[in-house]
Amino acid sequence: MSTPVLELRDVHKAFGAARIIQGAELAVARGERHAVIGPNGAGKSTLFNLISGMFTPSSGEIRLAGRRIDGLDANAINRLGLSRSFQITNVFARMSVFENIRIGVMARHGIRFDLLRRAAAMRAVNEQAQALVERVRLAGRRDTLAGDLAYSEQRALEIGMTLSTGAEVILLDEPTAGMSREETAHAVELMRDLTKDKTLLVVEHDMDVVFGLCDRISVLVYGKILATGTPAEIRADRRVQEAYLGEEAA
Amino acid sequence: MRRHHLLLLVLVALPLLVLPPFLSLGLQNTLVSMLVAALFAVSFNLLMGQGGMLSFGHAAFFGIGAFATLHLMLAVEDGLGVPTPLLPLAGGLAGLGLGLVAGYFATMRAGVYFSLVTLALAELLHTLAPQWDGMFGGEAGMSSMRMPWGGLVFGSVLEVYYLSLAWVALCLLLLWAYTRTPFGRLTLALRDNEQRVRFMGYDTHKARLVVFAVSAMFSGVAGGLLAFSNEVANYTTFGMPVSAQVVLHTFIGGSTVFLGPVVGAAVLTLFAFFVSDLTRSWLLYQGVLFVLVMLYAPLGIGGIVELHLRHMRELRWRALAGPYLGAAVAGLLIAAGFVFVIESLAVLFSSDYAVLRRDAGGLPPFPFLGTEWQPLSPLTWLAPLLAMAAGGWLASRAGRRIAPLWDEARRVHTQGGETA
Ligand SMILES: Nc1ncnc2c1ncn2[C@@H]1O[C@H](COP(=O)(O)OP(=O)(O)O)[C@@H](O)[C@H]1O
Ligand SMILES: [Mg+2]
Question: Exposed, middle or buried: residue A64 (CB in 10 Å: 0-12, 13-18, 19+)?
Answer without folding.
Answer: buried
